[in-house]
Automatic annotation (TrEMBL):
A divalent metal cation binds at E17, N153, D203. Residues 15-262 form the SMP-30/Gluconolactonase/LRE-like region domain. This is Regucalcin. GO terms for biological process: L-ascorbic acid biosynthetic process. The keyword Phosphoprotein does not apply. It comes from the Eukaryota. The active site is at D203 (proton donor/acceptor). Binds 1 divalent metal cation per subunit. It comes from Oncorhynchus kisutch. GO terms for molecular function: calcium ion binding; enzyme regulator activity; gluconolactonase activity.
Amino acid sequence: MSVKVACVVKERCEIGEGPVWEEKEGTLLFVDISGQKIHRWNPATNQKETVATEKFVGCAVPRRSGGYVIGEGRSFGALDWESKSISTIAVIDEDKPNNRFNDGKVDPAGRLFAGTMAIEERPTVLELKQGSLFSLNKDHIVVKHFNQVDISNGLDWSLDHKTFYYIDSLTYTVEAFNYDINTGSISNRRMVYKMDEGEGIPDGMCIDADGRLWVACYSGGRVIQIDPQTGVRLQTVKLPVDKTTSCCFGGRDYSDLYVTSACKGMDEADMAKQPQAGCVFRITGLGAKGIPANSFTG
Ligand SMILES: O=C(O)[C@H](O)[C@@H](O)[C@H](O)[C@H](O)CO
Ligand SMILES: [Zn+2]
C-alpha cells in the first residue's frame, strides 16, 4: 500500500483547524479560526454545511446531548446546529481581553480541554505567555490547569488514559503529563519529543490505535508520526502546503488521516506557489488507524 495525499475540501480556510470525525454521520467537523466558521463536510456527498461564529473559533466538539460545544473568543459555548444558534456556557480569561481560545479536545471521560493564546498580530507573532489550559466538565465547572502558555495547541490522551499529551507550539516540543481520568487532573510535566531542524512548529495532533502521535507541523508542510515512549519519529508525510495545522483519523475503519491547513499571512506570490493552502487533505495508505473521537458529556 502506498501513501497518497489528496486535496478533498477545496474551499480555502484562513486557519483550518480542529478536525473531528463524526462516525454516526460519516462527516468531518472542522473550524476556520479567523474565518469565524464551523464547517461540517460529508465526503460521500461532498456537501458542506457551515455555521458562522461572531468571534474567532478555536475548536468545536460533538456533545452527547446533541449539538456541539465550542471555544469561541474567551467563551465556552453551546451550538445548536439546526438553528445555528450559540449560547454561552462559561467565560474564561476575564483579565485578558486580548486572549482567545485555540485548539481543544474531549477527554475519554467527556470533559472538554481547550487552551488559550493572545490574538496574533500575524501568524506566530503575539504577546507571549498569555495563554492557559482549561477544562470544562459536565457540570460546566471550569478548571484552569496551568498558565504561561504561548500558543496552546494539540492535545490527546494515551490509549490507557493515564497520559495526557500537549503542545505549546512555541516550545517546539510535544509534552506529556500523568493523567487522572477520575478527576481530570494532570501532573508530572515532561518533554517527549523535540522538533527537528526544518520540521516547523508543532500544531494540532492526534493519537493512533497503536498509541503513536500524529503531529501536524505548521510551516513544516508535513505530518509526522512519533512514538511518545521513545521520542523517536517513525514517519514523515509531506503535503503540498506549508501551513499544515491539525489532523484526525476518520473514514471507514479510521484509516484515513484528515489534515487541515491555513493560508492566513500568505501573500499573492505565496498563494500562487501553494494554491491549495487552507484546504483539507486526506492521507490514505498510512498503515495506521485512529480511534473514535469522544463527545462532551453534559
Ligand atoms: O492553528 C493554530 O493553532 C493557531 O491558531 C494558528 O494561528 C497557527 O497554528 C499558529 O500561528 C502557529 O502555531
Ligand atoms: Zn492549532
